[in-house]
Design goal:
The protein is α+β, with helices and mostly antiparallel strands. The protein is built from 4 helices and 9 strands. The strands form 3 sheets. It has a 4-stranded mixed β-sheet with strand order 6-3-8-7, sandwiched between helices. Strands 5-4-9 form a 3-stranded antiparallel β-sheet.
């Protein structure tokens, strides 16, 4: 089954399930669905940053400071956060990611409920090659410089989530 064929829950503006549809149809019709964002920090408190593969359905070859993805039909945000973090980082045995904030993203690519989580990953990462072309860990200051200089194309939903997280957590982020 291709990613476009995966069935997702379709939700309304209050995050209530209204039906299901294949991912390709969800994106093509601009239907609201659910997504998790997981900020992964290493033992030195650096943030995992990566470039998405060119084969991604949305924002191919863009940079992101979150791992994550869409929720499958009936999947909880918590379960999806752990599943996506372990899959994309290529590790097993992570602690359950901590939920931080939830918002309705509406922008380039469509609209989706976005639940931001935080996880500590002290394990050596081996990112999923179907998801990640390149990766590194950056300090918050290095990440902020990369965002500000405009040289890397960032996924707009991740950038929005990062800005909201910074505002939500202030200097603690």
């Amino acid at each position: 089954m291709s990613a476009a064929d995966e069935v997702l829950d379709v939700v309304d503006r209050e995050d209530r399930v209204t039906g299901q549809a294949p991912r390709g149809e969800v994106y093509a019709r601009g239907l609201i669905h659910r997504c998790v964002f997981v900020l992964a920090r290493d033992a030195e408190d650096r943030i995992f940053v990566h470039r998405r593969t060119a084969s991604k359905l949305v924002f191919p070859s863009h940079y992101d400071m979150f791992v994550g993805g869409v929720l499958g039909t009936g999947e909880s945000y918590a379960r999806a956060a752990l599943r996506e973090a372990e899959e994309e980082l290529g590790v097993r045995g992570l602690a359950q990611p901590e939920p931080l904030l939830k918002f309705l993203y509406e922008g380039p690519g469509g609209a989706w409920w976005s639940y931001v989580h935080l996880v500590r990953c002290d394990l050596p990462v081996s990112p999923q090659v179907s998801e990640v072309d390149w990766h590194t860990f950056l300090t918050r200051e290095e990440l902020d410089r990369r965002i500000a200089d405009g040289r890397w194309p960032w996924v707009p939903d991740g950038l929005e989530a990062y800005r909201r997280l910074r505002a939500h957590r202030g200097s603690r982020q």
